[in-house]
Design brief:
The complex is a heterodimer of chains A (298) and B (180). With 298 residues, chain A is α/β, with parallel strands linked by helices. Chain A has a domain of 202 residues: Divalent-metal-dependent TIM barrel enzymes (TIM Barrel, Alpha-Beta Barrel). Chain A has 9 helices and 12 strands. In chain A, the strands form 4 sheets. A 6-stranded parallel beta sheet of chain A has the order 1-12-9-8-7-4. In chain A, strands 2-3 form a two-stranded parallel ribbon. In chain A, a hairpin with a 2-residue loop joins strand 10 and strand 11. In chain A, helix 8 packs across helix 9. The longest helix of chain A is centred in the last third of the chain and has 23 residues. In chain A, 55% of the residues are buried. In chain B, the strands form 2 sheets. A 3-stranded antiparallel beta sheet of chain B has the order 3-4-5, with helices on one face. In chain B, strands 1-2 form a two-stranded antiparallel ribbon. Chain B is flat and about 60 Å long. With 180 residues, chain B is α+β, with helices and mostly antiparallel strands. Helix content of chain B is 54%, strand content 16%.
Chain lengths: 298, 180
Amino acid sequence: MEGKPRPNIPRLGLGIAWRPGLADAIERQKISFSELHAENFMITDNFAADDPLPDSVQRLQARGVTVIPHSVTLNLGGAQPPLQDRVDALAALVKRVNAPIVSDHCCFVRGGGYESGHLLPVAKTRAQLEMMAENVRLVKERMPVPLAIENIAALFEWPGKEMDEATFLGELVEMTDSLLLIDVANLYANSRNLGWDPAQFFDKLPLERLAYCHMAGGMVIEGLYHDTHSRTVSQRGILDVLEELAARVDVPGVLIERDEDFPGPDELAQDLHNIQIALTRGKARREAGKKVVGAGAS
Amino acid sequence: MMATADVRARIAAEQTELVRALVGVAPCPQRFDAERVRVSVIQLHEKRKMALKKVWPGLGQGLGDRFAPLFDAYAKEHTHPEWGHGLADGLAFARWLEGRHEVPNEGKLELLDVHLRTVKVGGRLRPRRGLAFSAAILSGPRRIVFGIKLPGLGPLCFALGSPTDAKRWAKRQARQGAVT
């Protein structure tokens, strides 16, 4: 919003999302931040505050690793206003881990009593945008730290769209004074499956609001790219999109998400190294003032 | 500008129509790409299965190769619970398995753990505060595991008979520090 002071965006550096099956390998990496899947530390709509955090998470925090709760069920794009106790439970987790930021998605997850268990695209209409902005404001009122909103991957779009995803997301974060969490892998997936152009996507976003990025590796199943979080992020197309972003903006943080086929520490270290190379290349282009060209994501 | 009740109601109806299609209880809404929605239905089902397995690893491990077909059969009859993500879905699945006498020992210990930590109020799982007891009867060899949760502490368990499974469970709890 014009004239409104922008929230301070911390420099997060490189990170890996914490998962029980990946805990040992993560502890062996040089990372400066991590994410907790918020719902795994909550019970439906209230935080199980008497459960201690996993030892591994406590050790990371003792090392100075920043921990960010990452939520998937706030239902920011849902027709039902956010539930107060659900938001408060997330806020309690934020305070408990002393997080500088909290995040969720530009999506809806439930409707009519049905839980999808997934992140679903919202209609890209003005009415949806205004309703979602209202939801985001209601969440922010109760959240002690800035909220970052993430783009999702989808295999289809709503009919009758009035704007594209980047315009929608950009306006949403501007209207609500929120931050951006750009999932590079989701954007890559949508470029493969929906024909989006990552470069154009970035050009329409207020990148000065970028809080951090997600990186993940997926796979092609029956001709469609699925963001399964089951493969290395060291795939040319995905790293190219990250470089394209870094060529436009100083990226405050990049985090690897891995949820399947957990790798050993060597693969994770290689992924972190390759991410750093992509960031360095992008930065060199940015500083050289080179004209940005297509992302070449496919 | 505030979204009016009419706008929310219209969007709610549209989103419900789409969600119902995606969880497999209604056809694809008009003007959507039917083929992509069909693939998404499969994607959501597989994701649900994996999410449950992550939150209930013992149940998945104990069922082995039978996990997938049993979950598929359960999911045909039960959509994802509205509240409680994989934890509630797994609880409903475990209850469904109980009716078929199909809960493996590892799943029984996870059930015991969930009983100690949670209570269902108005259809929603909530953390159980204060003192809690629970028990599970394991098979082959038959033994009873008692669980107790003291305020401010995680669950503790004691086994009558061979305590191997109980010890393994207690170790896992200590490592993970949560039901996750």
